[in-house]
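TL;DR need structure tokens for one chain.
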Amino acid sequence: MITLRNYQDRKVGVFGLGKAGISTANSLAASGAEVFAWDDNPENFAPLRGLAQVKLAEPASWDWNNFKALMLSPGVPLTHPAPHPVVELAKQHNVPVIGDIELFCEALPNKHKIGVTGTNGKSTTSALITHILKTTEVNVELGGNFGIPALSLNPLEHDGCYVLELSSYQLDLVKNAHFNIALLLNITPDHIDRHGTVANYAEAKSAIFNHQTKYDYAIISIDDDYSRSIYTELKQTSKAKITAISCKNLLKQGVFVDKEGMLHDKLDPRAYLTLRINDILNLAGHHNWQNIAFAYTACRLYGLPPKEIEKGLRSFAGLRHRLQVVSTINGIRFINDSKATNAESTAHALAPFSNIYWIVGGKPKAGGIASLEKYFPSINHAFLIGESEEAFAATLDGKLNYTRCGTLEKAFEAASKMALAEHKQNAVVLLSPACASFDQWKNFEERGDAFCDRVEKLLSRIVVKK
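>> reply
TL;DR here they are.
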């Protein structure tokens, strides 16, 4: 747990008691702050009941005139579709509205921090950087939007490094946060309901580069219009050293991956290096080539030798729910990509495979799956689930064979039965929903775990061919 010395004997509000909110309240209380906490869901109060330093009370009763700050959980609306009433109260009393990442950076100004953001790939990239650093015996902690909340991470010694995955919601709540190495992987339209426009969403993402100095590094993709625009602006305005990443363009300077899967390191014009990455099985697909390029660059700029970075890349086991190969049963690979909650993510999952038995659906995002039509020739059959079933059936009519299944359980049974019966070469049963999970599950992890459980049950009852 991170100590917040600047908040000792100060009154602070914490609103939103999910993982980040509970972590924030505990850190503040342990640091001697007087904490006023609340959540719209009373079930979330349980972890804080009985703590002497925490007062559970509705925000209307808080002593706003003496507050140092309001700590807002990332899940609580800051601006869109409308500011939460607690945000309006804070504005009325001129109380700063910040989040746990701001507190973390304020508490540890001299610790090395690597920040990772982007619409897709940030969890894999953050975990990959952490893994590579660990393999070279760097004392490193990983948290933020991924896994452990930032304020619950362990304090590190002087030579340690924090790797933080950062969502747009979290970056909306930073004021002075500073990252020694900041990564922007990509920007595609997402979370428009929370930001109002794509421009606002991109602006929130770009906040990761605010307050960087001439000693810092900004690493940015130039493969999408929004990121490239930020790259161009930073080249003119930022004091940081700006590095371009591309998987589409050949660069004179920076790091790029060519169409054959060869990484080209042109960080130092005097030492041009190349590295083959298309044979790293646990990081398959063009989207993972981008993740590799970013992780490689971050670790190079941190100071690691290329050979040591390559060892870390090749020993990376991958992440659960992100193109996770759960098992291979009689030649059929069962792949859990539950983290794919939009069409862009699912495109990355469909691209590397042929003979796909695709489980898709859930709570739909804007645009649906129409953008995935170019991958339909690689899909043998689609199995539709969740709220999106009707809309996705309309999209697929006349273009792709599909079955309406309703639930993941029924879809898995139908997909596995068909795949095992047809036994086509290099076939995969792929859960890549292109949708949020909230229509039937608490989160994408629960959805992915249910898929994995089905695979294990199938494995236990089927006769595996030798």
